[in-house]
Design brief:
2 domains, 7-stranded mixed beta sheet, globular, alpha/beta, Rossmann fold, 9 strands, 215 residues
């Protein structure tokens, strides 16, 4: 089995990064985490990656005068290490169209809402304000428009009457840690592929499944 070389881009502690690294330890996982890269030299996730024996690299965006020059440095570092695919995991930089198009079809992100609902930030607060009864997270391919790329996978959690932003965020994050490795496995094994702006799946679906909230 050929394992695809993955880079994880982070800006902080990298909790989703850890879930991807743990999944990639399995001998049958179709991807290897070859690099963890951060725009912040003090990102906690860099040390967590080094402790796991994975190369960790910081490219400080503050050292570059333009967004474009920073992204060119990112791109050069990724290509120098033969990276095939990028996972954004709490990477707190809006990427330019140049970088996104350069990695088109080879970069995914995990977003804390059921896209296309609640694109952008403050997703849990907005979900509570809107009174939705289900919320969740989405893995999607990255396109120039923010949080608008083709969807690979979603996980759903109930929203309960006494939820706060914190409690809802914790419930969603738990599902993120499960969903992201599953989505990456699907992509790297060929079970989910990008075709004409949509994700095509090779597996059959159970169309009878449903989540009711409240039960």
């Amino acid at each position: 089995m050929t394992r695809r070389r993955i880079a994880i881009l982070i800006s902080g502690r990298g909790s989703n990064m850890v879930s991807l690294m743990e999944a990639a330890r399995a001998h049958d996982y179709p991807a290897e985490i070859a690099l963890v890269l951060s725009n912040r030299p003090d990102a906690e996730g860099l040390d967590r990656a080094r402790d796991a024996g994975i190369e960790a690299l910081a490219i400080d965006h503050k050292a570059y005068s333009t967004r474009e020059s920073f992204e060119q440095a990112l791109d050069e570092a990724l290509h120098a290490r033969d990276i095939e695919f990028i996972c954004l995991a709490g990477f707190m930089r809006v990427l330019t169209n140049w970088f996104v198009e350069r990695w088109a079809g080879r970069m995914v992100n995990i977003h804390p809402s059921l896209l296309p609902l609640f694109r952008g930030t403050q997703t849990h607060r907005r979900a509570l304000e809107e009174g939705v009864l289900v919320h969740g997270c989405t893995v999607h391919f990255v396109v120039p428009e923010l949080d608008a790329g083709p969807i690979v996978a979603q996980a759903v959690v109930p929203v309960v009457p006494d939820d706060t932003e914190t409690s809802l965020a914790e419930r969603v994050l738990e599902q993120e840690h499960l969903l992201y490795p599953q989505a990456l496995r699907m992509i790297c094994s060929g079970r989910a592929r990008l075709d004409g702006g949509r994700v095509i799946f090779t597996d059959s679906w159970d169309a009878s499944a449903a989540l009711l909230s409240p039960v």
